[in-house]
Amino acid sequence: MASAAAKYPSFVIPVPRDASQTAEGQRAYEVYFMEWAFHGSPAEPIANAELFQEPQTSTNPQISTVLFTPLQEYKLRNSFATPYLVLTYHTDLARSHGVVLLRGEITPSSGAAVAANGDSRYLLNQEDAQLLAMGMQKFYLWKDEHADGAKLLKAFHENPAEFEWEGLLKHADFSA
User: Where is the signal peptide, in residue numbers (predicted)?
Assistant: First the structure.
């Protein structure tokens, strides 16, 4: 997933909304812009290490962060847009224990914004946060470069004229 993210550091993930929101009875979607950032490799944990010992070169993968921002917010404010969800992959134990820890943080509301479910404490509800995390995996976690998610991700970056929104919505459907 990290190698695909390094090559394709941004994408869009649709989150389905109630079918009653459109006049034609079609399912509506809210689109989120996602972007990856990498922060360097953490030092490997050492038991009984000297407090002031020089850190050794790490063989762990880089720590990565994924920001999810509503596309409308991103278009309006660009780099000043507030991400609604931040996922951080902590790789400290990747080599020693074979584990990568994930921390997800939903941005608290400032009081004016209200999440889709009416919860005014956060900008995003937990269900939408889970859908965004699963959507990210659908498009970045693939074994075959010819998988639908991989094709859409590549088209988004390498050939935007061939990127199909209909294919994105079809592939992002979580009901199937």
Answer: none
Q: CA-based Rg of the chain, rounded to a whole angstrom?
A: 19
Domain ranges of the chain: 2-40+59-171
Q: Supply the DSSP symbol for 146.
A: T
Q: Tell me which residue of 154, 142, 130 sits closest to 32, measured CA to CA.
A: 130
Mean pLDDT across the chain? 85
pTM, two decimals, is 0.83
CA distance 24 to 12: 24
The answer to whether residue 176 scores a pLDDT higher than 60 is no
Please say whether the beta carbons of 102 and 132 come within 8 A: no
Token reading at 69: 């921002």
Largest CA distance in the chain: 67
Q: Which of 46-50, 61-65, 134-138, 152-156 has the lowest mean pLDDT?
A: 46-50
